[in-house]
Predict the structure.
Amino acid sequence: MSSSQTSNSTNQSWGGRFSEPTDAFVARFTASVDFDRRLALHDIQGSRAHATMLARVGVLTEDERDAILGGLDEVAAEIEDGRFEWSVALEDVHMNIEARLTEKIGITGKKLHTGRSRNDQVATDIRLFLRDEIDTVAAELARLREGLIELADREADTIMPGFTHLQTAQPVTFGHHLLAWQEMLARDHERLLDCRKRVNVLPLGAAALAGTTYPIDRHVTAELLGFERPAENSLDAVSDRDFAIEFTSFASLLLMHLSRMSEELVLWTSAQFDFIDLPDRFCTGSSIMPQKKNPDVPELVRGKSGRVYGHLMSLLTLMKSQPLAYNKDNQEDKEPLFDTVATVQDCLKAFADMVPAIEAKADNMFEAARKGFSTATDLADYLVRRGVAFRDAHEIVGQSVAHGLREGKDLSEMSLEELQGFSSAIDEDVFEVLTLEGSVAARQHIGGTAPDQVRAAAQRAREALTALRSRD
Ligand code: ARG
């Protein structure tokens, strides 16, 4: 980056009314090119559409348009191969590109900015950028959901303890647990595609704030850029960044969900749970403890939620109380948004790669469910079916569990006589409900944990995912 030109003159794009050069520090402080150059190709995409529209309505001649489009192609090529020389003195990505275009094609380059301002230009750039990134995020999210659905289908019969308060509660199937994660992500996916609709609106034509006196056709520009429609109000179009806040709030919810999954993966890989194995390629070792295999990937994803929540707070605060219309505050929207996009994409990639490689340790899961009196509710329900009031049944089972704790026995390991000591309503057939298989199989309804229900739910999830994919 060349900073040699920093402020031995005023900026050529707006220096006309100034009588002294910009202070060197102020030039650096107000410049954004160090980070907004990331928008360069979207800036050129917007400029191409703007120039095409200007020629369509007769503000530019066809020759002028062709010169501008040709020049922009060359500038884009320079940027893509890293030959472009960015200058802090030119403040931001927009003026860097325009200056280079004018260097290349001469005075016609200066006509590109007719009927436009950097205010509607930057708002357009961010929307074009974010729309592309949303499509990448949606594809990665779909890949992760697909991985979860297939793993859930494979593990539909695998029994594990279900928890409340992280205490063993009732047996569930591992497939059912994975589909709970999948549901969280399905809602995130819907939120993302909903957010895309509000991103996909064209600010160009709003100019600085009030619109422009040229006979522009904003429908043409919108169509060229694939936007749904032109923004209704010029003041709103240049000023609000709620669409970036909305994306970051989608991202915060997603990372919250990923952090919950991460936490469970971390717990499950510990020696104390030992429910799953993560392949070595997703883990790292310790430099001092040779036995360690640490679940770094889920830990890091769990930690990354913090920075995304931080970006959400930054953007909300950035926007708060801003008077209409554009204010320089908005230049601060880019770094949090860029980092949110990068973080979401990395975390989704990590998870989408890792999930299909999760290996369930079915015997350990089963053993843990067996040890935790997880069929106690089933015994109570059994007693209710035999005419005992639920509150009394609860008390009877509580006493049986206390006995089991003293004797070191699960309910299913007690003899019929032992069980009948607590209630005469108990019969031989009680063992059908005390087994873990019987317990999960009995939850036979939509949303229940029975293996058949899990397989049916996986199939519905596949169909819903396909439907959503064809929407974006
Ligand atoms: N770099 C500015 C931004 O990111 C571009 C718009 C500047 N407009 C202005 N009138 N200073 O918001």
